């Protein structure tokens, strides 16, 4: 999306370097910052400046037709299944919210070679907020004033499931 992005650079972004193309900036976001990159801005007419965003920015982008900058939001998907009985690794999905910060999520599996059960841990980002574990963007499965350890995550036909009734996991958020 093209935007008037000075607000993002000043208040939310971190200078990451100069690149000849947008792909270089995208790779930096995906490889070096991994789960702590929520998006990036590429400015081809400003020497190829790349800015990385380490916090979500949903609802803050305004489109400007004559802009010389583009902001891209990173999308995260769950890795594919290894087999029908073994699921891929679970992945934390960035929270794109003005009202919540991301907590730290960790996963403990029964086996690393064939994952069939997992414990999902969610550490709240600040002391003032509750920890909230969200499945698929809008299903709150746990809220607590302490950190969360959610043990009921199972692999069925190569798909992670959580909660009761079971939800097929396509995204996991830890926020507070």
Shape descriptor? globular
Strand order of the largest sheet: 5-6-9-10-11
Mean pLDDT: 76
Q: Please provide the ordered H/E string of secondary-structure elements.
A: HEHEEEEEEEEEEE
Number of self-contained structural domains: 2
Q: Sketch the major β-sheet.
A: 5 strands, antiparallel
- Which percent band covers the strand fraction? 35-45%
Q: Number of DSSP strands? A: 12
Distance between the termini: 28 Å
**Low-pLDDT segments:** none
Q: Helix count?
A: 2
Quaternary state of this entry equals single chain
Radius of gyration: 18 Å
Q: Portion of residues in helices? A: 10-25%
Structural class: mainly beta
Give a quick precis of the structure:
The chain is mostly beta strands. Helix content is about 10%, strand content about 35%.
Task: Supply the key terms.
four-stranded antiparallel sheet; 2 helices; Hepatocyte Growth Factor; 176 residues; single chain; mainly beta; 12 strands
Structural commentary:
The protein has helices at residues 6-11, 22-33; strands at 13-18, 39-43, 49-53, 70-73, 104-109, 117-123, 131-135, 139-144, 148-156, 159-162, 167-168, 172-175. It has a five-stranded antiparallel beta sheet, with no helix packed on it. Strands 1-3-2-4 form a four-stranded antiparallel beta sheet. A three-stranded antiparallel beta sheet has the order 8-7-12, with no helix packed on it. It is globular, with a radius of gyration of 18 Å. The chain has two domains: 6-73, Hepatocyte Growth Factor (3-Layer(bba) Sandwich); 104-175. Helix content is 10%, strand content 36%. It has 176 residues and is mainly beta.
């Amino acid at each position: 999306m093209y935007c008037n992005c000075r607000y993002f650079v000043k208040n939310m972004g971190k200078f990451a370097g100069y690149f000849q193309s947008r792909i270089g900036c995208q790779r930096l976001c995906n490889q070096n910052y991994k789960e702590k990159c929520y998006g990036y801005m590429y400015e081809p007419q400003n020497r190829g400046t790349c800015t990385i965003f380490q916090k979500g920015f949903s609802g803050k982008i305004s489109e400007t037709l004559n802009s010389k900058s583009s902001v891209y939001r990173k999308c995260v998907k769950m890795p594919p299944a290894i087999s029908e009985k073994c699921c891929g690794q679970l992945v934390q999905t960035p929270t794109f919210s003005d009202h919540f910060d991301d907590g730290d999520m960790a996963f403990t599996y029964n086996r690393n070679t064939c994952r069939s059960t997992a414990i999902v841990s969610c550490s709240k980002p600040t002391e003032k907020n509750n920890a909230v574990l969200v499945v698929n963007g809008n299903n709150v499965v746990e809220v607590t004033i302490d950190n969360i350890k959610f043990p009921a995550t199972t692999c069925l036909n190569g798909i992670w499931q959580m909660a009761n009734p079971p939800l097929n996991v396509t995204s996991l958020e830890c926020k507070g």
